[in-house]
Amino acid sequence: VQLVESGGGLVQPGGSLRLSCAASGLIFSRHDMSWYRQALGKARELVARIESVGGTTNYADSVKGRFTISRDNAKNTVYLQMNSLKPEDTAVYYCNAFRRGNVYWGQGTQVTVSS
Predict the structure, then answer these.
(1) Are the C-beta atoms of 67 and 49 separated by less than 8 Å?
(2) Which among 115, 98, 89, 91 has a CA at the least distance from the CA of 28?
(3) Tens digit of each residue's pLDDT (9 = 90 or more) over 69-113
């Protein structure tokens, strides 16, 4: 199984980024997909999740109204659209796939929000 994130980078406060995670080696449509992040010196935290069935989404309170998670099962890809970025969003963002106790992680992509 491979999860490959892309789209990270340096952005000014108030700016936007779109992260992508391309999955291979798994039945993508049957996996719940999530984005986590880990800031320097802090624990990894859940940012957003989208379920395999029905596409139900949920978000951390800190990103509600600013971030949107979506998936394209035909492309085996999950996205995280991040708007109105704040310095406190600075972190390494990780893609996660979950199904029946099996968990897979990507290598992470750095997002830095700074002027």
Answers:
(1) no
(2) 98
(3) 999 999 999 999 999 999 999 999 999 999 999 999 999 999 999
Q: For residue 47, count other CB atoms closer than 10 A to its CB.
A: 23
Secondary structure class of 91 (helix, strand, coil): strand
- Copy the structure tokens of residue 69: 């998670």
Q: Are strands 17-24 and 67-72 parallel, antiparallel or unpaired?
A: unpaired
> Is residue 59 within 8 Å of residue 67, measured between CB atoms?
yes
Tell me if residue 20 falls in helix, strand or coil.
strand
Collapse the DSSP code of 115 into the 3-class scheme (helix H, G, I; strand E, B; otherwise coil) and give the result: coil
Could you tell me the strand order of the sheet in which 77-82 lies? 2-6, 17-24, 77-82, 67-72
Please enumerate in sequence order all residues whose Cβ is within 8 A of that of 66, keeping only pairs 6 or more positions apart, or say none: 82, 83, 84, 85
